[in-house]
Structure formats: structure tokens, C-alpha cells
Amino acid sequence: MQRKAWYKYLLSLPPMAYLLIFFAAPTFLMLFATFRYAGEYGGLAPWYLQEGGRLTMDLTLENWQRLVESDIYLRLFLKSIGYAVATTLICMIMGYPLALMIARSGRKHRDLLLLLVILPFWSNFLVRIYAWMIIFSPVGALTRMLNGLLDLIGAAPVTLMYSPTAMLVCLVYVHLPFMVLPLYANLEKHDFDLLDAAQDLGAGKWRRFWLITWPLSLPGITAGSILVFIPVLGMFAIPDLLGGTNGIMIGNVIKQQFMESRDWPFGSVLSMVLTVTAVAVVLLGSRLGARREGR
Amino acid sequence: MMIKKNLLLWISAALVYLFLYLPLVIVVVFSFNDSRLNAEWVGFTWKWYGKLLHNREMLGAAMNSLIIATVSAGAATILGTLAGMAMSQNRLRFLPLLVLAPIAMPEILMGVSLLLLFIMVNMTLGLLSIMLAHITFCIGFVALSVQARMSSMDPALVEAARDLGASPWRCFREITLPLLMPGILAGGLMAFTLSIDDFVITFFTAGVGSSTLPLQIYSMVKIAVTPEVNAVSTLLMLLTLVVIVGASRLSPAIFRGE
Amino acid sequence: MKSLLGLLLLLLATPVFAGEELHVFNWNDYMSEEVVAGFEKSCNCKVVQDYYSGTEEMMAKLLAGASGYDLVVPTQNAVQALIQQGFLEKLDKGTLSNIKNQDPGFLNRSYDPGNVYSLPYAYTTTLIGFNEQRLKEQGIEPTSWAVIFDPQILEKIKGKVTVMDDADEVFGAALKYLGYSVNDADEKHLLEAQQVIMKAKPYWAAFNSSSYIKELTVGNIWVAHGYSSDMVQARNDAREAKRDFTVNFILPKEGAVLALDNMVIPKDAKNKKLALQFIDFLMDGKNAAGLSNDVGAGNPNAAALPFINPELKQLAAIFPDQEVLATLETLEATSAKIRRLKNKLWTEIKLK
User: Which of A240, A259, A265, C137 could form a disulfide with A63 if both were Cys (CB 3.0 to 4.6 A apart)?
Assistant: First the structure.
């Protein structure tokens, strides 16, 4: 086993070096920024004061204090986590059958089916959201059809546009491939002999799924959930466009700090908290996944 | 291969495809719509494609986007695969954190912090700075996808080959890589998709005159996103589809991990 | 793979244009394409435009030092901040022969006394756009900010109203509605404004700064708070689409926010001479008029007036007379403390 270790470490060198330069270094710049004052006209104030040739540090904890001053930021975080959990679950429910179907179809069609999952995403994000806005529009065909049906059964008409439903639909839509792709990569390599054997032993369809396919696919689900959960947590464009008057998430407030109130230090504080939350959730998730897998 | 086709599975998968393609149909259909408004069907026209042909800015931006996405996805796939392989070995504690954190970091923060870095080292902002930024956020996606594939790969295969005297490189090329290929491919596709669609990070790391398609489109948001955008999106999807299907026809082995 | 890489490198290395380039950083859709083409012809150069959609976006990029722009078009409060940061080049007015065309009413403002660094480019107001027929059916006569703030009126048009997704603009409108100045920084007054907004919010469909033109034109939204130039666009679009309604707009009687956009040259601009040439070209009456005719913006250029579409010219909301002008206020650069307070109040509004 000794001989394996060195080349594994060697493997990790290039990505590690790259991420240290282009991710860790800038992140430390921003972490440092959380202790600095905001510049009067935006950006950051200098972190030192020059008095009679003497340099003194001009740093502060007030940005962190503001975070805990009131409960609005906590409530925002909880709300965002709620959306992220809901989106992840829906993506899982929708993505699983799709990934399974692709993994079980003939080799010839697999590439094409996989490509079809991702194709819509080469059109522009905004164009896709606008397409959904056309669908949700009160004068749009879908809404009218739906309300026609509701009218038939005597229910009150609904507004889809600018509702949490619309937001959730788009969140799921935008992140679905990030669930399907890793899930497929996992399901694809499952050994069908196992399933055949189980069938020979008389296990039913569902039993085979729960006892074999599902546990084997847990690493794929974990990877997919991470890829969906985290970006949703920091999302701001969809709440901006479709959220109506209440659809605000933590991402929007972070964006406000950088783009509207010119408060980079506080924006950095919120971002750091978000990043740490997300990484914690992910590490926890993958540890759970690993434990179950190693059962 | 003897699994019976499961009707329920196929129906639910078909429904998900329907969900994925419903808005897309609208995007494509409205690129032929004879109304600038992009709101309801008026009549058929080719004029948006004609207009697009003369829209220097939009075509230039589309070209920039393709170049950036290709290069970034390529580089991120290589780096991400290495990271994913290294990560499947539990001994490395630091690497997973370094790989996952960029996915977790809010886009704006990453954009701003990269901007600060580029300014600090006095780098001219342009295509290169955008690519460097895109590679940064794409690595994690590839790594996770590869790791998921790797973590349930049978290590006995590699060990057996090594015992039989194969060099590490040969082991990698002939066993690990082909087995990992679906994961790598999935990761690479994700990276390409993320790069071609990114707005926030690109905004901060773009320099003068290095506009990408999302930047171009967002600049139209205020007045109206004209069907020209639908037309360019349609063409872009068609182009990428042709390139990828073409490539998979030319060298099916690479794509299927055979 | 190697050949592909080679091809890419070739593409990267090929300069698109051999002549001089002028890099402009401007608001979205805020330049007449025809005028740009005219300038390119006359100077044998290429105008490369990048766009921004919010002052902070622009400031973030400029202040970080990532420039390379020769000409920037910021709004007045941003000009003030940029001057104080020592970011702008003094304009060499000797080379600007068309400077005489500028309407003196828009010169020598408090953000840049004597116009040392900036010259006015265009202006917009933030006002109320509405669906004329639908409001008439509801018996609503929009004359005041009450149409977006008074719950009694909003009751009839619930879910058909959007306001801008911009704290300064919405607070500005609410402060005006209460009879204060848009720049009022008194915490008590701001809290009052917050209450007004909170009470009206349940009746609004959304905070929307991006797609209200379309929503108005399609008929999904009946009342929208937004920029005057956008409302001109919405009105034209509705007319073009032959709707059974017309989109109209009014400046509320309490007054509103005036945004005065300016041309400035950053200190580190590479092509200052060409930038000055472009500024002079844009101040030519006929060229300046193109901005109003194509974009629907108000024009601070007196010589442009004869060339402006007469229908547009007579709209008080676009070209306010002295009396109306007196009710309009520009947003001033605010201190970090006020910005923080406003942001917190705004976050509370949105979270509620």
C-alpha cells in the first residue's frame, strides 16, 4: 500500500495549488475585509492609519456585531435553508427516476439522453427564466388553463407569477441537472448481476430497489444533493425575478451589501457565514453518506 | 442487461423531460415570433436570425462565451478529475474543504474577491481573467462528480493490475480512466454549462471589451430581451449539440468509457 | 486537441480592429446606435461599449481599479463620489466647441460646481406608469404617490402593482409621499417611510426593476413605479402591439426623483483625446437629440430641442417645465451610516 500514497498526493498537487492561489488567497482577502471599515464611497477603507510616521491598525469587530444585533439575519438564513432543502428534495424525487432510466437504457442512447438533460442549460439562464415567466403569466395559456379547470370544480383562481411556487419551480428547474448527472454517473456502474440474482431469489421490484439500488446510489445522491443544496442557498437571481414581495433569500441581502448599500465588510461577513454553513452541511452530509456506505 | 423495462420509471422520466423542455420550446418558438415583446405569439418570422447576423456585439459575445467555456471546462475537467481521485482517498482532509468551499461560496463574494486579487497582482482583466475565475468555480463540480464515481469503484482492479506489474501510469490509463469516464464526462458537461451561463463572477472579472453572452443579455434586461436573444440561444444550443454529438460519433470509445 | 488549442490562441490573439478604440461604460440601452455609428465614421475609430445596470455595479468595478474605460456615464450621486475619490480627469473645455449647447439649468449643480469634471448627458425621472383603461374602470385617477402607497386605493388593484427593487427609489417615493425630501436622513422620518411601505406591500405583486416594461405592455401589471424613459418605451410597445389599452405615465404631484446622468473621463483613461472628441460629438444638437428620440430620455442640451420628436417634447414627465422641475430632487451621495440604516430597514421590509 505504501507505493500508492505518493502518487495520490502528487495527484492532488495541481488542483490544490490552483485553488490555493485563485480561491484561498482571495478568500483570505475577504475574510480580512470583515474586520475592516467600509470605505465612505464604497469598497474598503484602508486598514491602517498613518499618524506622524507611525502605522496603527484600524480594524473593527462591529461588522460581526451587526450580524447578531437583531434576529433578521438568522430568520433570513433559516428561510433560505428551507428553500434549499425543499429544492434538493424535489430535485431528488424528480431526478432519481430520470437518472435511473438513463442508466438502464441501452448504451447507444445513453449519451443522447444525458445530453438532452443538459441541453436546455446552454441557452441563457435569463432566457429560461423569462420563458417560465411567460408560462406563469396571468394572460398565459397555462395559467388560464389551470384556472379554467379550477373554475370547473368551483375553486378560486390562483396567481402563479411572483409566488413561492413559481420560485420553487424555477429553483428546481435550474438545478435539476446537478442532481441528475452525478446520480447517473453513480447508477451507471451498478452491477446488474446483483439485481438479477435478487430477482432469482424472489425479491420483488421494490424490494430489489430498496435493498440494492438505493443503498448503492447513496454516494451519487450525496454528491447531487451537495451540488443542488449549496447553489440554491446563495441564489439571488430567481428570488429577484420571481419572488414577488416576500421572496428574499440570504443571497439577495449579500448582493445588496455589495451592489446597493456599498457595505463590503458586512457583505463579506454574511458571505463568510453562508460559506461556513454550506461547507458544514456538506461535510456532515458526506460523512453520513460515507458512514452508511461503509456499513 | 436483462432488466425488464419498468413502465412507471419510463413515464416519470418522460414527465421530467417534459418539464425540462417546456420552457425550452418557448425559447425556440419565440425566436420565430414576429413581435419584439417576447410575450405572446403573433406570427412567424425569420427576421430575428437575420438581425442577429448583423449584430456584431452579440456574435462577438457568443464567440467569447464559447471560447471561455471550452477552455475553462477543459482545464477544470483535468484539475477536477485529479482532485476527485485524490479526494476519494480519505487521508487528505484539507483538499475536500478546498474543493467544496468554492461551490459553497456566494458568487458575488467570489467575483469581488477575485477582482481584488487580479487588481493586486496588476493583471489586465480580459478573457484570461474570466477563464481563471471560471476554472476556479468549475473544479469542485467536476471533482464531486468524479469522486462519486470513484468511491464505489473496486480498488481490487487497480491493485490486481499493479500486482501484475503494470506501471501506475498504465494502470491509470487503462483501468482507472476508462472506469471514471462517465463521471469525468458528467463533470465536464456541468463545468461547460456553468461557464457558459455564468453572469455574476464574469461581471466582476471581465475587462473592457471582453463581454460574454450573459453579460450582453443582462445588459438588455431593462428595455426588453428581444427575440434576438432567443435566436442566439437556439443557435448556441444547436451548435454545442452538433459539436458534442459529432465528437461522440468520431470517438465513441472515449464517451462511453469502453 | 492541439490544433483546437492553436485555433483558440489564434482567435485570442487576433485584434478585432486595427484603428483606435474608445471604451465606453454606460447604462444599458442608453445610447443611440445611429449616433455611435456616425461617430465611428467621422473619427475612423471603434466605439466599444460595456454596460452596467446599477450605480453600485459600476462603482464596484471602477473603484477596484479595474478601469481601462475612456468614457463613463454615471448618475449625479456617483459623480460626486467619484470626484471625492479623486478618480476623475478634469475636462479640457477648450476642445469642446459644443459646450455652449448645454442648457444652463442643468449645469453648475452641487455635485460638481462649475462642471470641472462632468457634463450632463441625459436625465430621467422616477415616476408612475399605468394602464389607462384598467385604472379608469376602477375609478382611479393617478395623480399622486397614493396610487402605490394608499391601501384604500391599492385595495382595488391588488396584485397589479410593482415598485422598483431599489431601496433609494422606494424610500425616495415614500418620503416624498410624506412630504419630506428624498434625501431626508432623519431616522424618524425613515422609519415613518418604512411604515408606509410596509402597509402598502401586501397589495404589491413584486419588487421589479427589470421587467416592468414588458409586464405593463402585456397587461399583467397595471401600475408600475419606474424610470420615465422605460415608460416611454412601454407606451410605444403597447401601441405597436395594438393593445386594447394604452400605457401612460405621470409625475406625482408631490414630486419625484430626478436622475441626471453625466459624461466623465477617468484619470487612467487611455484615450482621453478621443473621449473628449466623443463628448463634443454627443453635445452637438442633432446627435444629442438622437438620445431622446431613441431612448426616451430627457435632454439637457438646448440645441437638441428642435430635433426632438414633438410628441415627446410636450410630455411634462419627460421634459418638465420650470414649475415641475422645482418639485424634482436628485439623490445625493449618502454617508455609510445612512446607507446601512436604509439597507437594514429595506431588508426588514422584504423579510416581513
Answer: A265
CB-neighbour burial class of residue B122 (10 A; exposed 0-12, middle 13-18, buried 19+):
exposed
CATH of the domain at A102: 1.10.3720.10
Whether B223 sits inside 8 A of C16 (CB atoms) is no
Cβ atoms of B105 and A28 within 8 Å: the answer is no
Say yes or no: A256 contacts chain B, CB-CB below 8 A. no
Joined together, the cell numbers standing for residue A80 give 433560505
Place of cell 430575428: B48
Domain count, chain C: 2
Q: Which residue, A221, A248, A222, is CA-closest to A235?
A: A248
- Residue B224 is nearest to which of C25, C64, C214, comparing CB atoms? C214
C-alpha to C-alpha distance for C270 and A140, rounded to whole angstroms: 50
Confidence label for A5 from pLDDT (cuts 50, 70 and 90)? low
CATH assignment of the domain containing B145: 1.10.3720.10
Contact A241 C56 (CB under 8 A): no
Taking the CA atoms of chain C, what radius of gyration do you get in angstroms? Answer: 22
Which of C16, C65, C213 has its CB closest to that of B223? Answer: C213
**A interface test, pick of B79, B138, B151, B228 with most A CB neighbours within 10 Å:** B151
Q: Which residue of B has its CA nearest to C27?
A: B219
| Nearest CB partner across the interface for C218, out of A137, A246, A248 | A137
The string of pLDDT tens digits covering residues C103-154 is 988 888 888 999 999 999 999 999 999 999 999 999 999 999 999 999 999 9
Structural domain containing residue A270: 70-293
- Integer Cα distance of A81 and A234 in angstroms: 10
Q: Which residue has the cell 502605522?
A: A55
Asked whether the CA dihedral B103, B75, B112, A12 is positive or negative, the reply is positive
Quick check: A39 and C63 CB within 8 A? yes
> Domain containing C291 — which CATH number?
3.40.190.10
Q: Which residue of A has its CA nearest to C160?
A: A138
In the predicted model, is pLDDT for residue C10 greater than 60? no
Task: Judge if C206 and C340 occupy the same domain.
Answer: yes
Cell of A148: 379554467
Does residue B139 fall inside a structural domain?
yes
Question: A7 in a domain, yes or no?
Answer: no
State which of A18-22, A183-187, A215-219, C46-50 shows the largest mean pLDDT.
A18-22
Q: Which residues of B touch A184 (CB under 8 A)?
A: 182, 186
Residues 6+ apart with CB under 8 A from A101: A113, B9, B10, B12, B13
pLDDT under 70 in chain B at which residues? 1-5, 89-93, 152, 221-225, 248, 250-258
| Residue A15 forms part of a structural domain | no
- Which burial class, exposed, middle or buried, applies to A205 when counting CB atoms under 10 A from its CB (0-12, 13-18, 19+)? middle
Chain A partners within 8 Å of B143 (Cβ): 15
Q: What pLDDT digit, counting tens, does each position of C165-194 carry?
A: 888 899 999 999 999 999 998 999 999 999
The reply to whether residue A182 touches residue B244, judged by beta carbons under 8 angstroms, is no
Residue at C325 is within a domain: no
Closest CB from C16, C51, C214 relative to B37: C214
The C-alpha of C326 sits at a distance from chain A's nearest C-alpha, in angstroms, of 27
Sign of CA dihedral B255, C3, C4, C5: positive
Of C140, C341, B8, C96, the C-alpha closest to A104 is B8
The parent domain of residue C303 ranges over 10-123+260-319
> What integer best gives the mean pLDDT of chain C?
87
Instruction: List CB contacts (< 8 A) between C60 and chain A.
Output: 42-43, 258-259
Q: Please state the ipTM of this predicted complex.
A: 0.81
- Is the Cβ of B254 closer than 8 Å to some Cβ of chain A? no
Indicate if C96 and C139 belong to the same structural domain: no
> Helix, strand, or coil here: B201?
helix
